[in-house]
Amino acid sequence: MKYLAIALMLLPGVPAQIHAQQSAQEMKNAAPDHRKGETEEQKGKRLLDEMVKALGGDAWMNKQTMYREGQTAAFFQNQPTGSVIRFVQYTKYAHDSQPELTRQEYLHIRGMITPGMKRDVVHIWDATNGYEVTYKGQTTLPEKQVADYMRRRDHSIEEVMRRWVKEPGVEIIAAGSTMQDRRPVDKVNIMAANNDTVTIEIDQETHLPLQRSYQVRNEQFKDYDLDEEVYGDWRMFDGVETPMNMTEYHNGDMAAQNFYTKAHFNDTYPDDLFDHTKLLKK
């Protein structure tokens, strides 16, 4: 052992490497572990705090508006329907007494003779309803489509962190670890006073959310439907981390995929941009 130690000392770089490993281990042993004795509630809140910090902290929490461009593809029973539509989206987030407002413009090819794209169909979402607007007029979107959209918005990560966690009676519980897209994640359940629950799965390395899910009562079949959103390809825009692709699942079946090509935040939009009574120009 003596001669082996001498031989190791003669190898270039070995003493420094051994010393660095020993120092790192000593620091690890000496450093206090603040997570020891942490309750599941404390851990859940810590994980959410780490997630918000990774998303951009105050820049993410206080964002006022969002603009995105992309395309959406529809699926039925995990198979693509062949429908792929380009769109641009404007969102004004809720603040004070102002509800969240969204305008989504769908782009279609003008034709063989006239090149370019036209925005001839617009969907506008206000506090309680959704509308389709064209140059011919405006109409209320189907009840089921409106209900699905409002439910997804009410269970979004933004809504959970801005409103849910501040309400009385809310419970935030760490729900263990699992794998998502071959990455280890921590699960956090946020349960409102009415037992409505959102589960967020957070990447253990980046602390970014990889999935958001919730269950809703199916009155027709007297059971529960599971809705999930899976996020990927996170990129930073204006200090805010933004997923450039998002996949929606319903009861385990892929329902839609959204791919974004551009995003930016905190532009100023006029109020009539979200006015469903303003018809499009032909």
Strand count: 13
Give the biggest beta sheet.
13 strands, antiparallel
Using only C-alpha atoms, the radius of gyration works out to: 24 Å
Strands in their spatial order, largest beta sheet: 6-5-4-3-2-1-13-12-11-10-9-8-7
- Report mean pLDDT, rounded to a whole number: 88
Give me some keywords for this one.
23% helix, disordered N terminus, 282 residues, alpha+beta, 13-stranded antiparallel β-sheet, globular, 6 helices, 13 strands
Give a quick summary of the entry.
The chain has six helices and 13 strands. The protein has a 13-stranded antiparallel sheet, covered by helices on one side.
Give an account of the 3D structure.
The chain is of the alpha+beta class and 282 residues long. Helix content is 23%, strand content 45%. It is built from six helices and 13 strands. It has helices at 2-10, 14-30, 40-55, 58-61, 143-154, 157-162; strands at residues 65-76, 79-92, 101-109, 117-125, 130-133, 138-140, 171-180, 183-191, 197-203, 209-218, 223-237, 240-250, 253-265. Strands 6-5-4-3-2-1-13-12-11-10-9-8-7 form a 13-stranded antiparallel sheet, with helices on one face. A hairpin with a 2-residue loop joins β7 and β8 (183-191). The longest helix is centred in the N-terminal third of the chain and has 17 residues, at 14-30. The chain is globular. Residues 1-33 have low confidence and may be disordered.
